[in-house]
Amino acid sequence: MPLKGPRKLSGVPIELSEQSRFRVNRIDSVALGMHRDDKGLGSLPEDEVLDTTNGHANLAFDSGDEDDESRDALPPMPVTNSRRPSLQYQYTLAGSGTVYGGNLVQQTREALPRLDNYRDLASIAAGHRPTLDELRENAKFEKAVEQGEAQEEAQSGAVKFGWIQGVLVRCLLNIWGVMLFLRLSWVVAQAGIIEACVVVLLSATVTTLTALSMSAISTNGLVKGGGIYFMISRSLGPEFGAAVGLVFSMANAVGVALHTVGFAESMNDMLRSMDVKIIDNSTNDIRIVGTIAVTILLAICIIGMEWESKAQVGLLVILLFAIVDFLIGGFLGPLDDTEMAKGFVGLNATLFVNNLKPDFRVVDGKMHNFFSVFSIFFPSATGILAGANISGDLKDPSSNIPKGTLLAILLTTLSYLAFVVIAGAAVVRDASGNVMEIAGWQFANCTGRHCDWGLHNSFQVMELVSVFGPLIYAGCFAATLSSALACLVSAPKVFQALCKDKLYPYIEWFGKGYGKGGEAYRAYVLTFVIGVCFILIGDLNAIAPLISNFYLASYTLVNFCTFHASLTKPIGWRPTFKYYNTWLSLLATIICVSIMFLISWVTALITFIAVITLYLIVMYRKPDVNWGSTTQAQTYSAAMGQLQKLDSQQEHVKNYRPQILVFCGRPSARPTLVEYANLITKNLALLICGNIEKASYTHKARIGVVDRGNRWLRDHQKVKAFYTMVDGMEFEEGARALIQASGVGKMKPNILLMGYKSNWKNCNADDLKAYFTVLSVALDNHMGIAILRTRDLMDYTGVIAGEEEMDELMAAPKMQPSNDLLKAESGVSGMEMTPPATPENARVTSDIVVMSKDDKKKPKKRENEPDYKAIGGGDLPQEVINNLNQFTTKQKNGCIDVWWLYDDGGLTLLLPYIIKSRSNWENCRLRVFALANSKDDLEMEQISMANLLSKFRIDYSDLIMIREITRKPQDSSKAFFKHLIQDLRAPKGIPADACEGKIADAELQANREKTGRHLRLRELLQENSKQSNLVVMTMPLPRKGVVSAPLYMAWLETLTRDMPPFMLVRGNQSSVLTFYS
């Protein structure tokens, strides 16, 4: 019935029926060419007329107003039988003259909220949501017309099951397995009724809590094939998921043997009762029957999942009849004296009381206890994952798994408890089977003699109690074969999913799928082989404890997944199943681990070692997968918490770390500069590689550049650093932005490292001024500054393959297209897109890359050594490689000279000390040069400096005090400097303010003494440090308004020209060294 007071949309009154009140996804159904009839939602017949006299057929919520405005009368309109919005559909509001189009998606660039827009991009049914750039740009935008409802994932034709056939039936068959018919009565005999019930309830507790956790995980998004492996790997990450997936696959493969041996054992008992045997009515017969049975089961699986499912239903029917047969027999009591003599006396209160307490005995040389009995029974409860393991074959795993699994646990737990009570109340523990001893129950007295019947001695108690014995055999066969079949299906499914993810080497071959359903025939054969190997053991009690630990380990991680996700609470953790609890999941985790060690600490230890080993293999391989695991969420939460904690703590000089911001441009352009920075910060402090681009980038292009830069640092240069860039800025502006905005909290750079501007004499005056200004900007922000100069040129653009080319070279063997995203987005060439971060250095020309005969003999590449290639992918000359690796190569001997001229807080001394502590530089001696204030107190100053270094615990080899620093430089030094600046001198008579980019006479005169000291230092450097491996010197302070950029660079050129690798350092005048403990 339509509701009163229909609400109006856009002036058009509509009616809302109770049936469609909440079907908001069908709004504007007329425009979609659909209507809702009594049978549900459907399409109107071709050319049928829809009466809209009483309003438009939109679906909306009732406004509750009874007296609305008069409805606009709309003429009848034909609606075609099409789910696609008609381009011709339109109507005119009466009296308004306004024409409205009926298809919104053709009138806007915006995408409507639809399921397809949120699918993985790899999905065939993935929708297209326009990017932010597409929405904002003025360029013509072509949008594909929506094709009605979302296209579902491409169906391969595979059979899909609902929650009853796919989950409930499988779980029931797997839980009602071999233990129900062959070992449950033995459990009652050993543990007694009370403890047997505890065994059942403890198993049910573990499985129920695990099922709750599994239900939470399975309803937190789309579950695909792989069952427990898929759930754990997507929740805890590939490391845990892969380990459990492999262990669980192995457990299921061994489970095939467990249930098949149970079948063979039952078959062997039946043949023995008929005086029939194959070889010995013992282990050899079990092996033969088991091998034949598992071969037949393999054939059923290979035929297809549909046949396997039909077989499961048939087996369940037989099993249910057998259970009913047992229950009826238990209430009816023994049918003849033979049954009574074998121990079945019917329900008896006295017997019930006698069997309440345990009676643990020695079996096969082993004294049993509660947990040994539990370990044998527990595999019967492990069938709860039978449905989850074929999650890829379920219609709706998120809904099917919780319903089917929890109901199966409830039904089987109640049935097991009923079986325990009936067996304990109706069958004695020992019976002779002698009919002549019925009087006075003498048959139950087995003291001093061996009895073959009773709960302790016979595994065929269920057949004895039943009304029709052969039906119990049929039920036992059904239970064991169905469980074996379920395991035979589960193991390959889980293993196939693991193989497809390529987390372990050499197993991908088994993941190939065949046929419509992608059946893993190769994995089936592997499971078959493993199962046959364990079938040859032929002992049910030996196999059961082995797989109990494997299952418990899997359950442990399932519960831990839910606990971890609930505790970290990532935004994506939104399970629709609400009946779980964080602390119950933790409790279940603890219970599973405890039971593992109580059953057998040796087996538990082996299981954990196996899981940890498999975990470490995946962690070492670092698979390129990103599944949004809770481990990632925990890493983020932990990092954020530690950053906040670090930010709240006051800094202390003992904890000082040199956190470097290096202006390297593209990392591939100046690899030696990055390597040198990494030499200082490796495993110690933060390193940020900054790039400043003049060109403006789109967001996609910027992300592409940053991703390639980080990938270059990580994969090719083997450097742990962060790469960032700013674009659309000049160098000075971009440098200021990076200096002020890089990092977060206390994780911010405190040192700026730049390459030496070797073309400072020939570059644009604005570029030189910007370079000089950036040094002052860094000091204004209380950062230390450092400039590195090497003998060889530092910019290798045009010599070694850059980030984009290396990506193409890496992808080429895999026949993947190269990534030209940046060029496509920016519209400029690769050279134009690679301006240096620091102003342009003189570049190494590509013509020096000439292969010689000696270059063909390459030394063996060391582990973690940077991976460089020439342009085009060829090998680099050895000379170029040596230059690139000059800071990572082992220094066999030599020295690091530290010219600690002025007290800048100790940074000039600390950085070379850190470098010397690296393994590649540890053989170098550390020589310290310091200035003496007066030659008269030279000895005292040397003692004072040695005492200071000793208190700083700086291990040095030589301490040289420099005197006469104020002595007049040699004429040759003066001539050198005069020649150096002759092209930079301003014409005489021009004031300093008007000499942009030039050195005025007034400035040169004002800084005459400083220039003289630098010339004197050059003489001392040439005399003492010409052959050193590295020179570190206190940098002259770039005073604002005192010295110009050309004169300052002339000082730096004077100090560093014709020298070995040279680093100029200036601290921020804050102590970075201390002698206090």
From TrEMBL:
It is a multi-pass membrane protein. Residues 166-661 form the Amino acid permease/ SLC12A domain. Residues 670-1077 form the SLC12A transporter C-terminal domain. Keywords: Chloride, Glycoprotein, Ion transport, Membrane, Potassium, Potassium transport, Sodium, Sodium transport, Symport, Transmembrane, Transmembrane helix, Transport. InterPro entries: AA-permease/SLC12A_dom, SLC12_C, SLC12A1/SLC12A2, SLC12A_fam. The keyword Ribosomal protein does not apply. It comes from the Eukaryota. The chain crosses the membrane at residues 192-219, 240-264, 284-303, 315-335, 370-392, 404-428, 471-491, 523-544, 550-567, 579-598, 604-620. Gene3D superfamilies: Amino acid/polyamine transporter I. GO terms for cellular component: membrane. Residues 55-82, 852-872 are annotated as: Disordered. GO terms for biological process: cell volume homeostasis; chloride ion homeostasis; potassium ion homeostasis; potassium ion import across plasma membrane; sodium ion homeostasis. It is found in: Membrane. Its main location: membrane. Residues 852-868 have a biased composition (Basic and acidic residues). One of its GO terms (molecular function) is sodium:potassium:chloride symporter activity. Belongs to the SLC12A transporter family. PANTHER family: GH09711P (PTHR11827:SF48), SOLUTE CARRIER FAMILY 12, CATION COTRANSPORTERS (PTHR11827). This is Bumetanide-sensitive sodium-(Potassium)-chloride cotransporter. It comes from Cloeon dipterum.
